Amino acid sequence: MSKLSRREYMGTLLATAAAAAMPSTTKAGLNPPSGDSESSGADAFKMCLIWGDADPELVKLSKQIGVTHTIAGTAGALASVPRSRYFDTVANIKAGYEKAGLTIAGVESHPVPANRIKLGLPGRDEEIENYIAAIRAFGKVGIPMVCYDFMAGIDWYRTNMHDPGRGGCSSMSFNIRDVPAGLTPWGRVSEEKMWENITYFLKAVIPEAEKAHVKMALHPDDPPVPVLRGIHRIITSPAAYRRVMGIVPSPVNGATFEIAVYYLMGANLEAVAREFGREKKIFYIHSRNLHGTRDSFVETFQDNGSIDFGAVYRALYESGVRVPLRPDHDPIVEGDNYFGRARIHPGYGVLGKLFGIAYIKGIMASLNIPYV
């Protein structure tokens, strides 16, 4: 068999993904236009990737597949400058993306370092002041959303970063039995302490975010286990989200709907999508698939896990959700080295993301759900 060129390889991948994207749900009741025309942008999901503007090859690739919205990160840049320079730094980041032809739909991960905030350590007030300054800068330049988390000490966590998957791809997995024994350097952090810490943060930050018109989209703890190496994880259920939203009621205090993590919570995905959607509390969506349970799971391609995305997307759309959405934690596949990357971060290869975008677009097109 002859070796495919990069263009031929990627064309085959995208065609296969689009053909596979046929959900089990029907199109009943959905009549809006589909596709990626800008004319439907106000009533559409916004497809996003998180490729940086500093990589012209990936920027070009993103635009070629019809993805012109992006999710940016700012923590590194803002950590290296004083608060007085936050606005100029954020404005420059936004201008760089716009020059590349990409629109920032939001910022993912904390916009500034925030571990003292989450752990309730000395110095958290300084971090909160930095946080508020960053949000004010976002508001001034028109960045509308921040996806943040409250996983203290340990961020999202997997016990195997290279679990062999379909066709020999590299997937990520988690098994609670394989978590190393012992505590982290921060020792034990109780559930009560974690709720105290997030309450302190929300009361300081949400009013400022509301003034700046920046939506705060809380990402769930991943995985949503109750304790990880002595540190309690509190954003592990829809009930926890309801509690967070009640601490500081605000139109900007809401959620990242991380579909796979909500599945691991044991939540009824369609019911939660409709509840939070009707309440206008879903600001951002991560789409990934998996097999397993909260304590033992393996992540998969979009098309071969346990989640019925057609049903979920339809529930979201029918409940009024029109927000940025991106594929997440896609397996690393053969051919990613075509892009010259010596080190590919698990879950964040190029070709798996192309498959994810094509699959999501295929489902939405089959349901006549508009996207840009």
Give the topology:
Elements lengths: L5 H15 L25 E4 L6 H9 L4 E4 L2 H5 L6 H14 L3 E6 L6 H5 L4 H18 L3 E4 L11 E5 L5 E6 L15 H22 L2 E4 L8 E2 L2 E2 L5 H10 L5 E6 H7 L3 H10 L3 E6 L1 E5 L2 E5 L8 H10 L5 E4 L22 H17 L6
Parallel strand pairs: 1-2, 1-14, 2-3, 3-4, 4-7, 7-10, 10-11, 11-14
Antiparallel strand pairs: 5-6, 6-13, 8-9, 12-13
Helix pairs in contact: 1-12, 4-6, 6-7, 10-11
Compact overview of the structure:
With 372 residues, this protein is an alpha/beta fold. It is 38% helix and 17% strand.
What's the number of helices? 12
CATH architecture tag? Alpha-Beta Barrel
Number of structural domains? 1
Biggest sheet, spatial arrangement of strands: 1-2-3-4-7-10-11-14
Description:
This protein is α/β, with parallel strands linked by helices. It has helices spanning 6-20, 56-64, 75-79, 86-99, 115-119, 124-141, 191-212, 238-247, 259-265, 269-278, 309-318, 350-366, and strands spanning 46-49, 69-72, 103-108, 145-148, 160-164, 170-175, 215-218, 227-228, 231-232, 253-258, 282-287, 289-293, 296-300, 324-327. The chain has a single domain (28-366), classed as TIM Barrel. The chain is built from twelve helices and 14 strands. β1 (46-49), α2 and β2 (69-72) form a beta-alpha-beta unit. α4 packs across α6 and α10 (269-278) runs parallel beside α11. The radius of gyration is 20 Å and the shape is globular. The two termini are 37 Å apart.
